[in-house]
Design a protein that fits this description.
The protein is about 50% helix and about 15% strand. It has six helices and five strands; from the N terminus they run ββααβααββαα. The strands form two sheets. Strands 3-5-4 form a three-stranded antiparallel β-sheet. Strands 1-2 form a two-stranded antiparallel sheet. The two termini are about 40 Å apart.
Amino acid sequence: MDSERSGGASTTVDVENLAFDVFARACPSRGTLEHVTGKWGGLILSALHDSTFRFNELRRRVDGVSEKMLSQTLHALERDGLVHREAQPTNPPRVDYRLTPLGSAVAERLLALIHLVEDRMPEVLTARERYDTARAGSGEAPAALDAGPAVVAGRGGR
C-alpha cells in the first residue's frame, strides 16, 4: 500500500479500487506504458523473456543501447515491478536481471506485437516505397524517417 501526505495527516490509498486510465494525463499507468513501449523498454523486456541476463550480456543482446540508457531503463522497469535485479555477493560483483511474473506477462504481449511487425515488414516496406514515390512525384521530399536497413532476413536468433 502507498501512503499519501496531505495536510500533515497520513492516509492509505486503496490501490485495488483505483480506476486507471492511460488517456488521463495524471494517471500513473501512462508512465509505465512509456517504460514498456519506449524504444529500449520493449526490447529489454523482450530480450529478458528468453533468459536471465547479466548487464553486459543484455547490452550485447539489445544492439545499440548505451550503458546509460540500459541502466536507466532497467531501473525504471525494476521500479515498475517488471524486472527483478539480483546482486550476487561475489568478487567481482555479479548482477542478474530477469522478468517478474508481471514482466513476463507484459513481454509475451510485446513479443506478439514484435512478431506481427516482423512478419508484416514486406507490406510495410511496400507501403513506404509507395508513399515515398507519391511524395517524390508531388515535389515533396521523401520521408526517410527510421527506415532501417533495406533488407533484414529472419528473426535474429529466434
